[in-house]
């Protein structure tokens, strides 16, 4: 069985292109005729692919494989394209959507990544059905109506109904109905399975500070458009679709920048009167019945080595609640265990909060569970070999312990996973800075980029230079990274724009005494003789002291602050050139 991720869309936004993709499955559509009569012949140069697709359309076939639709990134010789510009058309969706540069480059096809996004979008809105066992696709009844709809009011009505059945869209509308305006980070914080590597969100405050410190217009544009968590991107895309249908409005914002004066900020989104009316109707708050939600097993997780297991556990929770919309939490845990899911109750409770986060109205107080939505029937595939390694089981056990024994938000507890993912370095930086700000109660900014530390944390009386390292096998002594930290410390001590023109140290409050700055490494865990690096860094930097925090101690420290057992002003006392130990998880 192929393993596709559905339900979550990052790139597509054009309704006309979406309709053409759906029309690929409708032999009566004008676009199907265009593909059959000239698009395949004109824009697919590879003979074998061209012949196969042409034969299917000549016979009015309406079920296509994933690769018929999405294709691959191949050059005109059939080899893997070394650059996107060398890729030729190789699938039905690719030649259905002209590239953005079609007018100047003559490239009347898109890439396979964009094609996958449009296919995912069509399936997620229930316009196209996924035949999981065949890894193939066909049109749905709703998709047939969309295929044949005239652009304008008729098509917009079908799109609106589809989005009201799509849980993440109703989640965005519900959030904006409770508070408007919100930017993508504020919405992203509450969208999806909070904190998972596939559902990360950055702090609006941290990102605003980051944009405030951008050194030039190019960096400002990059921060504004390219740097976002996955949930932030989903929120932005969904809000954009809703805007096109008049359910949400958006406006640009402005903010001050240290180097550039006034710059464009992050776009704000608000629900419209029509959007408010529509979401109330969809949730059954008037005489109109609730709009049933459309979900699939693939909606319930996007990443992870045990993704199938997690999807099945969450899907089973929902199926059990569909049968009995109100039941005791303990009976739900027992029912899951009887079906092979023996996870800690804290994990189950977190799954329920996550299901609510994707737009399914479900809640629990730990005693009772309530499902308030009507859910369309969906199937759960039988998965052989869940691939749950001992390491993953142990890590989930630690996650469950933190969920059960602390009041930390799940997005911070998920650092237990993110800290081990080297490809998630930016997520680790951003969420760690947010943790210091929102949980430890310190001032905090994310800096990143060349010749800057990853983050700073501070009060009016002390400052900490922070370097984060997301390493799967722990962080060991490294002379190059020691050199880098020493340069940061000396930058802050000398404070000369001739030495470092970006003057990142200006983010520290001017009231901090010169002798009360510290350095800190944060990583999954530390190996070897890492305390030697701490002492050597201190010696080379004139005696300034520092420390190292592994991810569990970082979270334990935050929990102690929440409980009033550790005061923020006490943090410098732990900077003794040692790996810091705040305590154990009780």
From TrEMBL:
<feature type="domain" description="FokI cleavage">
    <location>
        <begin position="411"/>
        <end position="560"/>
    </location>
</feature>
<protein>
    <submittedName>
        <fullName>Restriction endonuclease FokI C-terminal domain-containing protein</fullName>
    </submittedName>
</protein>
<dbReference type="GO" id="GO:0003677">
    <property type="term" value="F:DNA binding"/>
</dbReference>
<dbReference type="Pfam" id="PF09254">
    <property type="entry name" value="FokI_cleav_dom"/>
</dbReference>
<feature type="domain" description="FokI recognition">
    <location>
        <begin position="158"/>
        <end position="252"/>
    </location>
</feature>
<dbReference type="GO" id="GO:0009307">
    <property type="term" value="P:DNA restriction-modification system"/>
</dbReference>
<dbReference type="InterPro" id="IPR031655">
    <property type="entry name" value="FokI_D3"/>
</dbReference>
<dbReference type="Pfam" id="PF02981">
    <property type="entry name" value="FokI_D1"/>
</dbReference>
<dbReference type="InterPro" id="IPR004234">
    <property type="entry name" value="FokI_D1"/>
</dbReference>
<keyword id="KW-0378">Hydrolase</keyword>
<feature type="domain" description="FokI D3">
    <location>
        <begin position="300"/>
        <end position="365"/>
    </location>
</feature>
<dbReference type="InterPro" id="IPR036390">
    <property type="entry name" value="WH_DNA-bd_sf"/>
</dbReference>
<dbReference type="Pfam" id="PF16902">
    <property type="entry name" value="FokI_D3"/>
</dbReference>
<dbReference type="InterPro" id="IPR011335">
    <property type="entry name" value="Restrct_endonuc-II-like"/>
</dbReference>
<dbReference type="InterPro" id="IPR015334">
    <property type="entry name" value="FokI_cleavage_dom"/>
</dbReference>
<keyword id="KW-0255">Endonuclease</keyword>
<dbReference type="GO" id="GO:0009036">
    <property type="term" value="F:type II site-specific deoxyribonuclease activity"/>
</dbReference>
<dbReference type="InterPro" id="IPR004233">
    <property type="entry name" value="FokI_D2"/>
</dbReference>
<feature type="domain" description="FokI recognition">
    <location>
        <begin position="4"/>
        <end position="149"/>
    </location>
</feature>
<dbReference type="InterPro" id="IPR044945">
    <property type="entry name" value="FokI_dom_1_2"/>
</dbReference>
<dbReference type="Pfam" id="PF02980">
    <property type="entry name" value="FokI_dom_2"/>
</dbReference>
<keyword id="KW-0540">Nuclease</keyword>
<dbReference type="InterPro" id="IPR036388">
    <property type="entry name" value="WH-like_DNA-bd_sf"/>
</dbReference>
């Amino acid at each position: 069985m192929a393993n596709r991720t559905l339900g979550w869309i990052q790139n597509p936004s054009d309704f006309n292109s979406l309709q053409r993709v759906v029309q690929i499955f409708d032999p009566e559509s004008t676009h199907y005729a265009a593909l059959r009569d000239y698009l395949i012949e004109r824009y697919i140069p590879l003979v074998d692919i061209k012949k196969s697709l042409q034969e299917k359309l000549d016979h009015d076939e309406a079920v296509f494989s994933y690769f018929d639709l999405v294709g691959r990134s191949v050059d005109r010789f059939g080899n893997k394209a070394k650059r996107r510009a060398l890729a030729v058309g190789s699938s039905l969706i690719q030649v259905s959507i002209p590239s953005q540069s079609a007018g100047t480059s003559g490239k009347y096809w898109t890439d396979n990544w964009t094609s996958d996004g449009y296919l995912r979008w069509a399936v997620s809105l229930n316009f196209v059905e996924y035949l999981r066992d065949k890894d193939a696709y066909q049109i749905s009844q709703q998709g047939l109506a969309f295929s044949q709809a005239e652009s304008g009011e008729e098509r917009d009505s079908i799109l609106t109904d589809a989005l009201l059945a799509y849980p993440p869209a109703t989640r965005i509308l519900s959030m904006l109905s409770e508070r408007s305006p919100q930017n993508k980070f504020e919405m992203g914080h509450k969208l999806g399975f909070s904190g998972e590597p596939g559902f990360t969100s950055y702090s609006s405050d941290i990102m605003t500070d980051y944009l405030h410190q951008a050194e030039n217009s190019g960096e400002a544009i990059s921060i504004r458009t390219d740097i976002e968590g996955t949930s932030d991107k989903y929120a932005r895309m969904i809000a954009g679709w809703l805007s096109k249908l008049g359910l949400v409005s958006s406006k640009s914002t402005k903010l001050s920048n240290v180097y550039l004066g006034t710059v464009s900020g992050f776009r704000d989104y608000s629900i419209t009167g029509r959007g408010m009316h529509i979401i109330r109707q969809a949730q059954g708050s008037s005489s109109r019945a609730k709009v049933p939600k459309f979900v699939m097993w693939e909606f319930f997780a996007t990443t992870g080595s045990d993704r199938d297991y997690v999807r099945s556990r969450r899907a089973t929770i929902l199926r059990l609640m569909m049968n009995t919309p109100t039941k005791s939490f303990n009976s739900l845990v027992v029912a899951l265990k009887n079906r092979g899911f023996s996870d800690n109750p804290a994990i189950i409770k977190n799954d329920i909060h996550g299901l609510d986060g994707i737009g399914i109205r479900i809640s629990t107080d730990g005693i009772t569970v309530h499902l308030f939505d009507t859910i369309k029937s969906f199937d759960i595939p039988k998965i052989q070999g869940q691939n749950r390694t001992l390491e993953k089981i142990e890590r989930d056990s630690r996650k469950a312990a933190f969920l059960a024994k602390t009041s930390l938000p799940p997005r911070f507890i998920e650092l237990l996973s993110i800290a081990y993912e080297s490809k998630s370095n930016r997520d680790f930086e951003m969420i760690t800075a947010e943790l210091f700000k929102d949980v430890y109660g310190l001032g905090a900014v994310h800096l990143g980029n060349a010749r800057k530390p990853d983050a700073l944390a501070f009060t009016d009386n002390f400052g900490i230079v922070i370097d984060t390292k997301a390493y799967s096998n722990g962080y060991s002594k490294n002379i190059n990274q020691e050199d880098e930290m020493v340069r940061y410390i000396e930058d802050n001590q000398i404070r000369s724009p001739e030495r470092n023109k970006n003057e990142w140290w200006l983010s520290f409050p001017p009231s901090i005494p010169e002798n009360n700055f510290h350095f800190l490494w944060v990583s999954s865990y530390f190996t070897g003789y890492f305390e030697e690096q701490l002492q050597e860094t201190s010696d080379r930097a004139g005696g300034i002291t520092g420390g190292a925090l592994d991810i569990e101690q970082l979270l334990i420290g935050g929990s102690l602050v929440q409980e009033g057992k550790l005061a923020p002003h006490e943090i410098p006392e732990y900077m003794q050139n040692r790996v810091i130990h705040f305590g154990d998880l009780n």
